[in-house]
């Protein structure tokens, strides 16, 4: 099933044209150097920006979750309080198994988290809820090897459950075996 189709989509400042179909159950891996168009492509897919040429077609009622490369979480909450509020906003139960799997220090204030733990909370908040498409921009930033392996297992399970996933990364080896296809920009 086709979720999103880009037909000759481009921006004036980027010397690239995107022809791309994102289907259900697929994992698209996007890699490239800085300035190659990874962020522009993600912004086009998310409809944060519109193409100057071409078009983007979305299936009806498409729901997606997005982890930006740089996140800003509320410092004054504990990790648990923040994630609990996210689950309430998304009208789902908080997935405690996800929190345990990611080994999140739940009762620490977000302001006191290390970079890796901060990223774990950001990832968990992205994965909470029902979505058709999950977009992760540099999800491995600050993560240790153990957490990277845990995230790979979680992503594999989400894909098996029918989720579509887009990952933009400078570390393609971590996800190449999971990828349906690899877009090198």
The strands making up the biggest β-sheet line up spatially as 5-6-7-3-8
SSE sequence, one letter per element: EEEHEEHHHEHEE
Whole-number mean pLDDT = 93
Apparent shape = globular
Strand content: 15-25%
Proportion in helices: 25-40%
**How far is it from the N-terminal to the C-terminal residue, by CA?**
25 Å
How would you classify the helix and strand content by structural class? alpha/beta
Largest sheet: 5 strands, parallel
- Taking pLDDT < 50 over at least 5 consecutive residues as the criterion, the unreliable ranges are none
Number of strands: 8
Q: What is the gyration radius calculated from CA atoms?
A: 17 Å
Given the structure, what is the number of helices? Answer: 5
What's the SSE blueprint?
Layout: E1 2-10, E2 18-23, E3 27-31, H1 38-46, E4 53-58, E5 64-67, H2 79-89, H3 96-101, H4 115-127, E6 133-137, H5 145-160, E7 164-168, E8 181-184
Describe this structure in words.
The protein is 30% helix and 24% strand. The protein is α/β, with parallel strands linked by helices. Strands 5-6-7-3-8 form a five-stranded parallel β-sheet, with helices on both faces. It has a three-stranded antiparallel β-sheet with strand order 2-1-4, with helices on one face. It starts with a strand and ends with a strand.
Summary?
The protein is an alpha/beta fold. The protein has helices at residues 38-46, 79-89, 96-101, 115-127, 145-160, and strands spanning 2-10, 18-23, 27-31, 53-58, 64-67, 133-137, 164-168, 181-184.
List keywords for this structure.
185 residues; alpha/beta; 5-stranded parallel sheet; 3-stranded antiparallel sheet; 30% helix; globular
